[in-house]
Amino acid sequence: MPPPPLTVVKGHKVKTSAGGDRTFRWLTFFCSLLVPLVMLAIGLDLFLSSWPAVKQFGWRFFFSQEWNPVLQEFGAGSSIFGTLVSTLIAMVIAVPLSLAIALFLVELAPPRVSRTVGTLIELLAAVPSIIFGMWGLFVFAPFMAHYVQPLLGKTLGFLPLFQGPPMGIGMLTAGIILAFMVLPFISAITRDVFQLVPPVVKESAFGMGATTWEVTYKVTIPYGLVGIIGAVFMGLGRALGETMAVTFVIGNAHRLSASLFSPGNTIASTLANEFSEATEPLYVSSLVALGLVLYLITYLVQVVSQMMLRRMYRAWSVGL
Amino acid sequence: MKLRPPTGRRLTNLAVSIWAGGSALLGILILFWILYVVLARGLGALNLAFFTQMPTPPGISGGGLANAIVGTLGLTAVATLIAVPMGLMAGVYLAEFSDDSKAGDFSRFSANVLMGMPSIIVGIFAYTLVVVPLGHFSGYAGALALAILMLPVITRTTEDMLRLVPNTLRESALALGAPRWKVTLVIVFRAAKSGLITGILLAVARVSGETAPLLFTALNSPYWFSSLGEPIPNLTVTIYNYAMSPYPDWQQKAWGASLLITSGVLIMTILARFFLRERKA
Questions:
Q1: In chain A, where are the structural domains located?
Q2: pTM of the full predicted structure?
Q3: What is the pLDDT of residues A208-221, one digit of tens each?
Q4: Pairwise CB contact (< 8 Å): B243 & A248
Q5: I need a surface site. Which of A122, A201, A275, B118 has the fewest CB within 10 A?
Q6: Domains located in chain B, CATH noted
Q7: B7, B11, B14, B31: which to substitute to probe chain A, counting the most A Cβ within 10 Å?
Q8: pLDDT, tens digit (0-9, with 9 covering 90-100), for B59-102
Q9: For every residue of B102-167, which 3-state class applies, written as one string?
Q10: Which fold, A61-317?
């Protein structure tokens, strides 16, 4: 849709501005079109480039666990499985933590503490992925291997999830690091959501004698639920596609395992590991197909997140 | 009506308060743990040679990452030069002209989605678009990937910041007979200056720590580079390669590079917040 025309007063020649303004408006319009264009172009490009692999392997590609560059047999099964498992671990840890942090920042901490803590948590979001990877591989993975995993093995070792040698690297470590990475994103939006709840609503509950927790649990959270879901989905999208930190600590093995201690891989880590070494067209195409899967999943998650957040802001801008 | 004694409720509340405080503490603890490790291990690697000399072959100690430092600066600069004008213009359209049109809505929505798109996907895009046709890895592909990652960040912050400029300012400038483009570029931009700088800083901070989109676009190289048409040495991919190597000297260099990247990114982020606060005040 073209930008709306300029309104020029009738019978009055505007000498300089009209032409310049029209050019300027069109220029800015094209630049703003660039963003959706790039987004759609990425999808189209991934679809076209992954076509040879999809044609070769069919639906089998998305479920097969086979990944053998020598035999030119490729399947996305283990990568998709790893992506889902590591993200699930991350969300199970990050969501309660982020909600608690938001609660602390909005309801419990005095303003100055809240500001400082909020800033520090936001700085955590700025730490580059590869730095999380360095820390994860050289510091956190040994920490997991020496302390956390033996403890888990001793106490919960009857579950197949926590069996196997404590190597440090693997699904569990990757999931925990992912949790630390998405936590600042979820807590920042949740904090905004909590702050947007009208004070009157909260105060009336406080006036009934409710405790801070009861107000949060029975008033704030239900009131801001849409926004919180939006925040969680945004974190989910980040966790699904996080690459470098996961590549450092997940162990990069193409296999499924019930144990969270064992190495695995994710779509993103497979891409990071193998893309620059892939030479055969079918190999490259299979990797791009993995990318397409990731694109589609994150796109869907982002759309849900945006819809939820938008619904919240729209509903609240009407006011209460 | 019989009132329940408040003890249980108070205890629950206390437990939740402790959990909330503990969670915040954990978040801060992780941040300082990472910063401490990067500082403690990276500081030893930084010396004059690190900044001025070329990498040594594997196993031979000494040397530095001068080429990678220049490469990272170069890639980021080229990406910034591409993304900033386009992002600013796109933001101008959304804030000044879109009038809640469908096109504007879709563009805003796409920017939000693109911001959450995994950076490695953008790397694949640049790979198929530039590396495959050219037949070799190149700085062009790397800079393109970084520019795509910067674009939505600049677009969205520009829009938000321009919307904060009061309409009276535009109206008074228009009333003096200034054309719309001049009002936007001279008056509104000046009023929103610190906000626009914030957006650009955040975008630069975001991409200068990126590794995934460079892995198979700019790749990496142990040499100097003379043009963007060849693989460009850069710090982040060097960190990845060196960290995975068995040589202690290389691993130490990786920590040095990590310190450099982390401090650069954090300083830019803090600066951005500073500008933002100035704007709000």
A1: 17-59, 61-317
A2: 0.92
A3: 989 999 999 999 99
A4: yes
A5: A201
A6: 48-280 (1.10.3720.10)
A7: B31
A8: 788 889 999 999 999 999 999 999 999 999 999 999 999 877 88
A9: HHHHHHHHHHHHHHHCCHHHHHHHHHHHHHHHHCCCCHHHHHHHHHHHHHHHHHHHHHHHHHCCCH
A10: MetI-like fold (1.10.3720)
